[in-house]
Amino acid sequence: MILLVGATGDLGGRVARLLRESGQDVRCLVRPATDDSPLRAIGAGIVRGDLTEPATLRPACKGVETVIATATVITRRFAGTSSATIRDVDEVGMGHLVDAAEAAGVQRFVYLSFPIGSASLRTPLEQAKLAIEERLANSPMRAVVVLSDGLQEVQLSRAARFDLAAGKAAVIGKGDTPRRLVSTGDIAALLAAVALEPDPPARIEVGGPEPLTKKEIIGIAGELAHRPLKVQRMPRLVARLATLVLKRRNDAMASALGVGLSSDIEEATWDDKALRQRGINPKSVTEFLKEQAQGLASH
Hints:
single chain, Rossmann fold, alpha/beta, globular
């Protein structure tokens, strides 16, 4: 049995579908009052619970061999639908899940994180990820920490102020540091694979096949849209100060600005090898943008 925590999100939902398609028994931890019909439709089991309610986690882990954790509260924090903070959910709550998994005899814990380098301002989300990584490093369970570069569907979205339809994009910093944005589908396939393979590595740093700067991405998008994108820039110093000021006032915005700033400073040292080794043909940023442009043209 595999317990999936975060299955109602886009990434977690993709992991659930892949596991079910391969015939795996999947149980999904779903918060009370959250719609679970898409998960039930694919044959996944449902257990109601919440990372902020430790008493619900041990029953969820009973009889489970592997836990896959992709859950984060940051999207709900942005939407204003959660009073629980990033620390409450991503750090303290996820720590309770690790405790419950250990107590239930879970053998493997697959955890989604992201690379956090020396330029990090230790935002709430970064602090939470580092705390759980450290907790898992000292766990008797076999931990597999997947450190993913930014997801194309997230970083190149309206929510991240990249709007191909409106011809607008925002840049934090200089925009000239190559990163390897990766497809959500590819990371879902990787998580499903390492949950099942016999001898996965303890840490996997991974990104997409195409190292591109934000400037290059905006240029490609402009060519596909047949018009240059209007760019709004936030200097590094402004982003740094805003991140520090917002740490206690708005944990989601501080975390997003902090990730954006770090991405503008620290070049990706990882690649797509972990994907290709598992037979996953990774989608490039250019392919993703072409799909977006074609979708706009068809409407």
